[in-house]
Amino acid sequence: MNATVFFQWIGSLPPILQAVAVVIAFAVVVAIILLLVDIAPRRGTQYTIIRLAMCLLIPLAVMWFFNSYYWAMGVAVLVGAVFFFLDYRSRDGAGYLIQLVAFMAPAMLLLLVGLILPSIQTMYTSFWNSSGNTFVGFANYVWIFTQSDGITSVVNTIIWVLLVPTVSTIVGLAYAVFIDRTRGEKIYKVLVFMPMAISFVGASIIWRFMYEYRGPEFEQIGLLNQILVWFGGTPQQWLLNQPWNNLFLIVVLIWVQTGFAMVVLSASIKGVPAELLEAAELDGANAWQRFVSVTVPAIRPALIVVLTTISIASLKVFDIVRTMTAGNYGTSVLANEMYTQFSKFEAGRSAALSVILFILVLPIVIYNARQIKKQREIR
């Protein structure tokens, strides 16, 4: 294939020339797209000829690059239909609609290929057995809610969703309120936000060292156990003792997400009109009453965004559990169990777990979308 030859040629170049070649190729593609977008809505014979030429040149380029007549025929049909529509609409001067379609079509295609079709396929797979040759109905879903592993993953996920958004938002809000307009505000915010710059895997490794356990006869390298030893206690296996080990894992995500909550809520607090706070103070309201009656209602949209965003992150949590315990000792969650079942070649059960995860995420997304819509209507 010419595409393979092209990429092999790119790979044979020195690293600097590879970067230059990739940039040039990208620039050429962008220039062609901009050219097509520019000529698409224009009227006139010359632009009609250009569109007809593109109907021929684009399929030929596809055939040369991929060395496939099937791809060329498919692209020819698609490009021909698109440019016929563009030419028809351009004669009516409908440029805005054409540009809108031209810009949205790649995104819609990516959503169709990368999200909608895989979602449908996953739902379909969840009703079949591991080999995919026997229809089992809701048997995979029944297994999830009747076996200990499935029940544990569902219960743990619910615990994560209840604790992480609540604690992260409360702590982030407290930071935002107490740090706001204080001396050294920027430094404090950077320190709190810094964990957001660390990946979940990196944060998990850091906290594994925090929880590291060695026998009482050895010197401790874990910070928590060393502190216990200094105070005359005995080292604890933090990640093995159920059910508290789940809480120790939850602390990691709270540590990461608190900075996000603090930044969003701090920006929202700064947008609260000073006149409202001054009016409440003149009415005799103390600091707490001003915070509850004025500040919190004013930053309600930001609170909803923070809570829903962290809730979705809690539902999807995988890296922390996989890195620290691999889901053992009663710490598995839905995403981790989904991966575990798939690695055991249980595709049906893995798909059923992903569908349950999707169902749990869906209400949060819908609620968030409705709240955003209400805010737009108010504005």
Quaternary form: single chain
Helix content: over 70%
Task: Give start-end ranges of low-pLDDT stretches.
Answer: none
Number of distinct beta strands: 0
Strand content: under 5%
Shape: extended
Output the structural class: mainly alpha
Question: Which whole number gives the mean pLDDT?
Answer: 81
Q: Over the alpha carbons, how many angstroms does the gyration radius reach?
A: 28 Å
Termini Cα gap: 55 Å
Enumerate how many helices there are, as a single number. Answer: 17
Instruction: Let me know the largest β-sheet.
Output: none
What order do the helices and strands follow? HHHHHHHHHHHHHHHHH
Structural features:
single chain; 379 residues; mainly alpha; 77% helix; extended
Walk me through the topology.
Layout: H1 2-12, H2 15-39, H3 45-66, H4 69-90, H5 95-125, H6 139-144, H7 148-179, H8 185-193, H9 200-211, H10 223-230, H11 244-270, H12 274-282, H13 287-298, H14 300-315, H15 319-324, H16 334-343, H17 347-378
Helix pairs in contact: 3-4, 5-17, 7-11, 7-14, 7-16, 9-11, 11-14, 12-13, 14-17, 16-17
Q: What would you say this structure looks like, in words?
A:
This protein is mainly alpha-helical. It has 17 helices and no strands. It starts with a helix and ends with a helix.
What would you say about this model in short?
This protein has 379 residues and is mostly helical. It has helices at residues 2-12, 15-39, 45-66, 69-90, 95-125, 139-144, 148-179, 185-193, 200-211, 223-230, 244-270, 274-282, 287-298, 300-315, 319-324, 334-343, 347-378.
